[in-house]
Amino acid sequence: MSCAIVINKMSGNSSCLDETKLLQTFCHTPTQTFVLDGTTDLPNVQKFNQIVVCGGDGTLNFALNHAKQDAEIFYLPFGTFNEKASCAKVGQQQIADVGVVNGRRFSYVFATGVFAKLGYAPAVSTKKRLKRLAYAKHVFAEYKVHRIEGTAQIGNKTVHGPFCLVMALDSHQCFGFKFNKCHQPNDGQLSFLLIKSPRCGGFLGKVQMFFPLFRAFFVGFSKPYFGKNLVFCNASRAQICLQNAVEGTLDGEKVSICSPLNFSVQKRAKPITVFSVKHARKICGKR
């Protein structure tokens, strides 16, 4: 068995990683280490049977989309938000399901529209210095009315736009808000959140948009919700047909995807071992 260790030096908390302890923990087979620092090309990890990922959610996303499907993946969260690692409250958790949109896999979220750019807006140096506060200064800049024309077919439900936010989620939280109380790991389903665009633009539109956003992220959902301006439901498959290609985020990484957006859930041949932040720091962190 061969093992690749991928260390993302650009992740928000990479300075907390003790590489010596990491190698002592995982170097039990022939191992090759790859360091991502923005100056080199992404490594080819296709030949490896085991991938150890040290970084944020975007680093895990790289492994999901570039490793072979029967490779074992171990995710040690050293990013800024570590949204996927929030599923492993204590120790570690086995995650078999990953979301797929137009052939691209994601561990916890695809989103386009309001606030979607927050995942990749801060500079690397700012994230390292300010941690989560690095995202705060971008909140007001990204709070603007989006008008995404299209129609969503989720299960047996049809929802017509325009939308200001389109989100597919396989996690109980996003943007740090633990709002998806319906989430069950490895249940073969994704959660879909659609918020319709306000009729007005400018300041008035922002005021109108605030209320469904507050309902979604601060109140949350313990069951499906179908309102006039807000839809939240679970499904194993969905198709969202849009007038134009969209720019969004896939696990915090910038993507551009053409319509239609076809969503599904893929069951991995071998589950991903997701470590909690606390456990990762315990076994591979600096004291």
Tell me what you see in this structure:
β8 (150-154) and β9 (157-160) form a beta hairpin. The protein folds into 2 domains: 3-97 and 268-284, Rossmann fold (3-Layer(aba) Sandwich); 109-267, Tumour Suppressor Smad4 (Sandwich). The chain is globular and about 60 Å long. The chain has 287 residues and is of the alpha+beta class. 21% of the residues lie in helices and 36% in strands. The model has no long low-confidence stretch (mean pLDDT 93). Strands 1, 2, 3, 4, 5, 6, 8, 9, 14 and 17 form a 10-stranded mixed sheet that branches. Strands 12-13-11-10-7-15-16 form a 7-stranded antiparallel sheet, covered by helices on one side.
Order of helices and strands: EHEEHEEEEHHEEEEHEEEEEEH
Please state the overall shape, judged from the principal axes of the Cα atoms.
Answer: globular
State the major sheet. 10 strands, mixed
Structural class: alpha+beta
Mean pLDDT across residues: 93
The tally of beta strands, per DSSP, is: 17
Oligomer: single chain
User: If helices are DSSP runs of H or I spanning 4 or more residues, what is the number of helices?
Assistant: 6
- Percent range for helical residues? 10-25%
The CATH class of the largest domain is Mainly Beta
Low-confidence segments, given as residue ranges, are none
End-to-end distance: 31 Å
Portion in strands? 35-45%
- Rounded Rg: 19 Å
CATH topology type of the largest domain: Tumour Suppressor Smad4
Number of spatially distinct domains:
2
Examine the secondary-structure arrangement and name the CATH architecture of the largest domain: Sandwich
